[in-house]
Amino acid sequence: MTHFSQSVLEWYCKFGRKNLPWQKNKTDYTVWLSEIMLQQTQVSTVIPYYIRFIKTFPNLIKLANAEQDIVLHLWSGLGYYSRAINLHKTAKIIQKEYNGQFPKNIKAINALPGIGRSTAGAIISSVYNKTYPILDGNIKRILTRCFAIKGWPGEKKIENTLWKYAEKYTPQKNTDKYNQAMMDIGAMICTRAKPKCLLCPINQYCISYKKGNPLNYPSKKIKREKSVKKVYFTILQYKNLVWLEQRPTSGVWAGLFSFPEANNPKIESQLDSYKISYKDILQLTKLISFKHTFSHYQLYITPSLVKLSTLPIWKIEVHKGIWYDLLKPKKIGLATPIKYLLERLPCE
């Protein structure tokens, strides 16, 4: 074991996080679930979602047998919804192809939807204590600073270099503790904006600390100005019922329910497509526009509320959706802007 690894493990024994919900009674299922939820999401945000999710789906079989809408409902607000869809898909694959037992082979785990090399390593090292390195965002930041590795970590060449360092310093014993310690150091000490270098157990090995420039690492991705997109929602409401349609299983808000939408502000074309005439409308109100931010663009949403005098009846093959009851809401996946608007609609 290297001195670097020993220092990390000694720090973990004294200061590492050992009481996170997914660290208690660890199984491959709970570790997998937490790792997926923690992708691009902070621990403090994940904890309440994890607790609710595990209460509803305490094991993989329960998840595999669940309806996708329920899975997405529990994920609503956590973002990156393809994670939830892949989670559900993977549970079904494991139930069918592995008799409900999580595979213990690293290649088999890595091949499952939504699981990459780092997540696979986290599962197999944490649960079975096998020697596999991991490389999440926190660890990338530690390694780029410690060894002064220039370049954006998302670039394949840089990522490959970081994997070599991760492999070199991951110890043969106590791999689970070491991997957790590295994640903890990244989250608690080697933070993005204000690293606490004096408290770091590996500052004696850290090149950027010795040079006094840890904030120069990791190199930032060249920022491009976020593009702006506009969308126009048509909220069709009859009494306490609101029409929602399920989005495709790929793309923005994958698998979630949303209002009918268009790329132009002319609501007439939307109404025509649903065969709604003005004599069917009690009230048409253009609501206040608002902005929703994605990682790559800004979405400006302009909703129009259309209160109907009668409940339209559509052919299911033409308009696939549900009449969502505001007083008895169904458990379905809703993106944050949709949930925001639904909560503000008037009830009768």
What does this structure look like?
It catalyses: Hydrolyzes free adenine bases from 7,8-dihydro-8-oxoguanine:adenine mismatched double-stranded DNA, leaving an apurinic site. Its EC number is 3.2.2.31. Its cofactor is [4Fe-4S] cluster. There is one protein chain. By secondary structure, this protein is of the alpha+beta class. It folds into two domains: about 5-215, Endonuclease III, domain 1 (Orthogonal Bundle), CATH 1.10.340; about 225-340, Nucleoside Triphosphate Pyrophosphohydrolase. It has 14 helices and eight strands. Strands 1, 2, 3, 4, 5, 6, 7 and 8 form an eight-stranded mixed sheet that branches. The longest helix has 16 residues, at about 80-95. The model has no long low-confidence stretch (mean pLDDT about 95).
Q: Tell the overall outline.
A: elongated
CATH-level-4 superfamily name of the largest domain: Hypothetical protein, domain 2
Percent range for helical residues? 40-55%
The number of E-state strands comes to 8
The proportion of residues in beta strands is 5-15%
CATH class of the largest domain: Mainly Alpha
Mean pLDDT rating: 93
The H/E string reads HHHHHHHHHHHHEEEEHEEEEH
Termini distance? 68 Å
What's the number of domains? 2
- Number of helices, counting only DSSP H or I runs of 4 residues or more: 14
The major β-sheet equals: 8 strands, mixed
Q: Remind me, CATH topology of the largest domain?
A: Endonuclease III, domain 1
Q: In CATH terms, what is the architecture of the largest domain?
A: Orthogonal Bundle
- Structural class call reads alpha+beta
Q: Return Rg in Å.
A: 24 Å
Detail the poorly predicted runs: none
